[in-house]
Structure formats: structure tokens, C-alpha cells
Amino acid sequence: MNRLLQNILTGIFCTILFMSISANAQQHDSTIDRILSNIQHEQVKKIIADPNHYRCQVIYTQIDRNEKGAPRFTHHRFNVDSNLYFNPASMVKMPLAFLSLEKLNEMKIAGVNKYSHMAFDSSHEKQVAMKNDSSAKNFKPSIAQFIRRAMLISENDPYNRMYQFVGQERANRKLIEKGYASSRITRQFMGYTEDQNRHTNGIRFFDDEGKLVYHQQPAYNRDSIRFPSTILIGDKHINRNDELVDGPFDFTRHNNISLDDMRQMLQAVIYPSSVPKHQRFNMTETDRLFMLRYMSQYPSETPYPNYDSSIFYDSYVKFFFQDSTHSIPAHIRVFNKVGWAYGFLTDVSYVMDTKNNIDYMLSATVYVNSDGVINDSKYDEESMGFPFFRELGKAVYQYELQRPRLHQPPLKIKGLEYEKRDPLDKRPTIKMADN
């Protein structure tokens, strides 16, 4: 055996050994074990005791700073396994929003930006045209309004429209190029076939006077998509014809992103310089602040869309801070995205407390479906899922309050400001949304 081949094989062996050691270490993290041991909720304790059954994964990220205020990240993992599939559901709206702002920035077409009026054509079978958006101040669709709707209460159609704008091919290529290797975004929330999802609508951009500025042609993704070995979950499922089928549900060709990749994507937007350059999203600082505003602003603060805050309350999509009050203290901001479908619940969050000068990241996913039937809309979200996030969020927050830090500078994201509703605004509020 020549020396070059020997060195290659030695390197491969060391890499495999390191990965094996790292994987084992992830299962026995003393910090997160200590935090979880403080949770006394009986149903949540069941999840913690049998994480594989509940497909439970948790990443708690401590943030410490040096004397100059530069952050350092330490990740504590519980049962994290990229091969333990969970359905990301609405989590895919986060990278599509990032990629939408990136594409706008890279197009460099005068008059085309996140506020530009858009019209979506019906260019292929079952596609749905869109020319108006009643939730917007000007009643016109735009990337800005799609981001608001997707982040504030996790509406579904804005995701479809961003998917159509970015395109299936570009979305997957870009995420893989950035190193988010687990990413596979293949489906809109439209009930389309696999081939129909490869087609995206023609889109026209207009200026404020209604003059056509740019026409994006309909597209078709010819790239092959690599799917893993079969992913079957559940004992029975409801099929497209609303029939109960004896056998598991096939998630093989559904969307997928690992918890670690989603956590890294969020970190790349909160603290861009903390991740390698190739993992960042190429958006302007103005667009980044816009993104952060609507990831952390509450429905009660937002004039457009004018959501009914008694239904879409402030903690509606803040799983780690949901409680009976439906409110979050004014000194806490949660920058996050959640997803829930098929009994899977996920939240990837960055939490900033400006009163106590603490910040951290917390990401988790869990599967709660005791009857084993997929797609029947009967899941254990209220009894197990939401309590899991609430108790985990509370335990980590209390731990953070007591955790010593060598340097604790005042926390503030420069340039980030929030909106306020006009108390005299008498417009009807939005009480229903597809999310």
C-alpha cells in the first residue's frame, strides 16, 4: 500500500472514529441532562425517558461573550440524530424567506425589491393565479408581505408564493451549496404531485404606477432529487381519498431539513459573522433587519396584516413561551420559526432578554401521535406536544438566568425597531388563516 493511499484511509478512519465519538457524546450531555431532570410534568417526562419513540431532539446553545462583546456558541444536544426523521412542516418557510431576500438582492434589477407589486400567473395545471392580497396596505402581493404573513402566524400560501419565486431548483441548489446538506424542499402546500411541484408559475413585477418592470418566466426543475431510503412512520394513515389505510405513512419524498441545519440557518441570520461565509445568506443589512423584525414582532403590534390578537395572540407561534396568559414579557424577544403537522412539532428559536442581558438559542422537535394514525388530525399536541415545549423553554430560561457569565454587555440588535398598531384603527381584524 503506497503512502498516499495509507494516509487517505487513515484520515477516513479518524473521521469515522471522531464522528462516532461525537455522536455518542451527543446522547450524554450533562448540561442538558441536568436541565431536563428539573422538569416534573408527567407527560413531558415520558418524552424525555423515551426520546426515540417520540422522535425528540433538542439543541440548547449557550452564548458567551469576550471583553469586546463577540459571541461564542456552545451547543448542547439531546438525542440529536440527522437520520431520525421528523416532518419540518412550516419550518421550510424560514429558508424560503431567506432565499427570497437573497434572490432579490442577486437579481439586481432596478425597481424589483421586496416591496414590488407581484402578480402570479397560472402557467401549469392546477396552478393558482394571484393578483391581490387583501392583508396588505396596498392590497398587492409582495415578498415583504409574504414574509410578514409566513413569520407572524405561519400562513401557508405565502410559503407557496416564495417557493414559486425562488424555484425548486434554485432553493435546493443554494441550500446544498451553503452546506445545509440535509435540506430537501420538494413540495408546496398545495396537494400537488411530484411533477407539479417541479413547475413554478410565471411572475410579473410592477412599479407603484402599475408599469411592468420584470417578467419571471415559468420554470421547471430538471435536476434529479436525491431521496433517502424509505421513511415509513405510523401504523395506519388516511390517504388522498380520505380512506383509512392499514399501514404506515410514506414520508420519503416529503420536505426535510435536520434540526442542526435549521439552527445553523437561524444563527447565520442572527449573527452572520459567527458562521462560515458560505453558510450565510446574501441579503442586505436592511433586509436582514426586516427579516428579524417579523421573526420577533408580535401580531398585536402589526398593523398589516391586521390579525385578531385574541385568536393570534403574541405567543401563538412562540412554543417555548406559550402559557395560559398568551403573552410574553416586554423585555423578551423570540426570533424563531415553528412548524406543526402530522403530529410533529418543531421550534427553532433565538431568545434575547434585554432586562437580564441574557441570550441563547433553543431548538427542539417532537412527535406526539398516540393512536399511530397519520393524517387524521388527531394528535397529542395539547396534552403532550405544547407542554413539552413550554416546560423545556421554562427550564432552559431559568437555567440561563442563573448561569454565570464573565462578560455581560447590554443586548441590542442595532437598527432593529418594531411597529405599533394605531389604537384608533377600526378595520375588521383577520380571524381565520390557513396555517
Report on the architecture of this protein.
The radius of gyration is 22 Å and the shape is globular. It has a five-stranded antiparallel beta sheet, sandwiched between helices. A three-stranded antiparallel beta sheet has the order 3-5-6, with helices on one face. A three-stranded mixed beta sheet has the order 10-9-15, with no helix packed on it. The chain has a single domain, classed as 3-Layer(aba) Sandwich (Beta-lactamase). It has helices at residues 3-27, 30-36, 42-49, 93-107, 143-152, 157-166, 168-177, 194-198, 259-270, 285-296, 381-402; strands at residues 57-65, 71-78, 117-120, 199-200, 203-206, 212-216, 219-220, 232-233, 236-238, 244-246, 249-250, 332-341, 344-353, 358-367, 373-374. With 435 residues, the protein is of the alpha+beta class. It is built from eleven helices and 15 strands. It is 31% helix and 17% strand. The longest helix is centred in the N-terminal third of the chain and has 25 residues, at 3-27.
- Global Rg: 22 Å
Q: What is the mean pLDDT?
A: 93
What is the correct CATH architecture? Answer: 3-Layer(aba) Sandwich
Give the strand content.
Answer: 15-25%
Helix content: 25-40%
What are the secondary-structure elements, in order, as H or E? HHHEEHEHHHHEEEEEEEEHHEEEEH
What structural category arises from helix and sheet content?
alpha+beta
How many structural domains are formed by the residues?
Answer: 1
Total number of beta strands: 15
Reported by name, the CATH topology is Beta-lactamase
Low-pLDDT regions: 1-26
- The rounded distance between the terminal residues' Cα atoms is 59 Å
Enumerate how many helices there are, as a single number. 11
| Largest β-sheet summary | 5 strands, antiparallel
> Which strand order do you get reading across the main beta sheet?
2-1-14-13-12
**Anisotropy-based shape:** globular
